[in-house]
Amino acid sequence: MTTWGEVEYTAIRELRGPLAVVEGVSEVGWDEFVRITLESGEQRHGLVLEVDREVAVVQVLEDTAGMDPSRVRMAFAGGPLRIPVGPGWLGRVCNGRGEPADGGPPIFGPTTAAVGGTPINPVRRDPPGEPVLTGVAAVDGLTTLVRGQKLPVFSVAGLPHLELSVQIAAQSTTGGEPFCVVFAGMGLTHADASFVRDTLEERSAAHELVLLLNMADDPVIERILTPRLALTIAENLAFDGGRHVLVVMTDMTSYAEALREVSAARGEIPARRAYPGYLYSDLASLYERCGRIQGRPGSVTVLPVLTMPAGDITHPVPDLTGYITEGQIVLSRETHAQGVYPPVDALSSLSRLMRKGAGPGRTRDDHLDVAAQLLAALARARQVRELTDLVGQAALSPTDRRYLEFDRAFLHRFVDQRPNELRTLDQTLDRAWQVLLTLPRSQLAMLPTALLDAHGSGP
């Protein structure tokens, strides 16, 4: 429970967008939680963004609409925002502030935790290891997600990134070990929120899901709080509850735009594309909360989803995200236009920690070899497609034609699957072999002879 100070302040200098400027404060600190009481008795809440002598800038979580600065009282908690944590969150649907949206009672827990979190001591970090299997062939086969990793999905407007993130949230497992998902949706339409709730209903009923949904018409400040709530809940479920937790956060571009809006309201000097200069450190404060801790059984894995405005991968949000995270899954308009779901661009996608979580003793002995050969053949197929555009298919060699067949088979027999289709890793790798064997054996030089013999490769 939050202990509130007895002093209430009424000297509100101004209300500016989602911000309130309070004068005459004393012993108030940055990031302190604030209770705001309106004349009608309605209560709102806020966080201290800035303190300068006796003036505090407070961001109001429910926005300042309808507030009269001359009739508002503010009380400061003396500490940052804390929420109850524990298994009571599992199976619940809440808004972006953590308030129940499923008609159930408020959420209680045996203890509380600061929403801002605390950094993990690098000395106590265990390196990521062992896979999180998503049931999505293009992810499990070529960009394996590893427990403790942060692996973003880069998309553009109009592509099914929400469908993919929900599918991953619904299907992911860690080989029978305790597992759950925390799904943080930011800036969702009401139709998208209904889709998320309906699709994840089974996992929620099994008490393996925490759902935080911030709507597009909710106050913008709430959007900044949502991912921090999700990570605070996940850290407790993982490091105190012993679970492997996957945190799916979509859409991080909506989060960054909310950050930009608040920064503009504060009158801060803008940086690239009007985003605040601290965007990198702010994103890092979220992404770096994943990992594993020595002596603790659980792990936190983060899958942020972000849309690239105009498909620009050099836009500040994907650009800075790429510096912080360990790879990326890139969705492609061209692949989507061919009717393939999920429209993953395999050659642009990468999981830098894949070798930590795949291969002998972790997934299957042939996994890394098959993935490497698939990508090498795909790169050659792309060259052949470009050559075909220049000289026509009639001028291609028989081997080049086989690469065109491989390219079609890769998209439609390996990558393409239904949004509700769960593929086991064995099914994924068996399909990969079927696709590879459309090529002559002479073109599969990256695969050991013993593996080729075992799978009946022809000449």
Walkthrough of the structure:
34% of the residues lie in helices and 22% in strands. The protein has 14 helices and 21 strands. Strand 2 (12-16) and strand 3 (19-23) form a beta hairpin. Helix 5 (220-240) packs across helix 6 (252-265) and helix 7 crosses helix 8 (316-324). The relative contact order is 0.12.
Q: Regarding quaternary structure, how should these chains be classified?
A: single chain
Spatial order of the strands in the main sheet?
9-16-15-17-19-14-20-21
Number of helices: 14
Characterize the main sheet. 8 strands, mixed
Distance between the termini: 71 Å
Percent strand equals 15-25%
Query: How helix-rich are the residues, as a percent range?
Result: 25-40%
Query: pLDDT under 50 segments (min length 5)?
Result: none
Number of strands: 21
Class by alpha and beta content: alpha/beta
Mean pLDDT: 92
Over the alpha carbons, how many angstroms does the gyration radius reach? 25 Å
Backbone shape: elongated
Summarize the structure.
The protein has 459 residues and is an alpha/beta fold. It is 34% helix and 22% strand. It has 14 helices and 21 strands.
What is the strand and helix layout of this fold?
Blueprint: E1 8-9, E2 12-16, E3 19-23, E4 32-37, E5 43-52, E6 55-60, E7 73-80, E8 82-85, E9 93-95, E10 111-114, E11 125-126, E12 131-132, H1 137-142, E13 145-146, E14 153-155, H2 161-171, E15 179-188, H3 190-199, H4 201-205, E16 209-215, H5 220-240, E17 244-250, H6 252-265, H7 279-287, E18 292-293, E19 299-307, H8 316-324, E20 327-330, H9 333-337, E21 350-351, H10 354-357, H11 367-391, H12 398-415, H13 425-436, H14 449-454
Parallel strand pairs: 9-16, 14-19, 14-20, 15-16, 15-17, 17-19
Antiparallel strand pairs: 1-7, 2-3, 3-6, 4-5, 4-7, 5-6, 8-10, 11-18, 12-13, 20-21
